[in-house]
Design goal:
By secondary structure, the protein is an alpha+beta fold. 35% of the residues lie in helices and 37% in strands. It has helices at 16-52, 60-69; strands at 5-9, 12-15, 55-57, 74-76, 86-88, 91-93, 100-113, 119-132.
Length: 133
């Protein structure tokens, strides 16, 4: 393929090579968009399927049955009680609490004085974990 001019717009010229490269780039984007759409569609279908097989627990006896049988995934919307404590991965208790930890930068200013009485203000920067409930 040569560098023959296919289109001319005033002083701008488009060669067949530029047109071919543009077509290849656009085709690659179209193909990748179909691939990404497929991945998103598969993941959303998997989530919908998981939610559709989740059991809705509305009463305490039903919750006790789910707890005793190890039924699987369930969702509860009300205050539910059981004879046994509910556990997660071998840790048993009455409630589950979620805590957000944020790694935060702090700046501290302090005065540093030498033996001749000259004082200078210095800056100390340190990082710490902050817990947000």
């Amino acid at each position: 393929m040569g560098n023959d001019v296919v289109f001319e717009f005033g002083e701008t010229q488009v060669t067949s090579r530029e047109l071919l490269v543009s077509f290849i780039v656009v085709s690659a984007f179209v193909v990748s968009s179909f691939f990404i759409r497929g991945c998103i569609s598969d993941k959303s279908a998997s989530i919908v399927h998981e939610l559709s097989i989740t059991t809705e627990v509305t009463t305490s006896p039903m919750f006790k049955w789910v707890r005793n049988t190890g039924f699987g995934r369930f969702v509860g919307h009300d205050t539910l009680s059981t004879d046994y404590p509910v556990g997660i991965d071998g840790v048993y208790g009455l409630a589950v609490k979620r805590v957000l930890e944020v790694y935060t930068m702090h700046t501290e200013y302090y005065d540093d004085c030498d033996s001749k009485g000259r004082c200078t203000t210095r800056t100390r920067i340190y990082w710490s974990w902050e817990h947000h409930c």
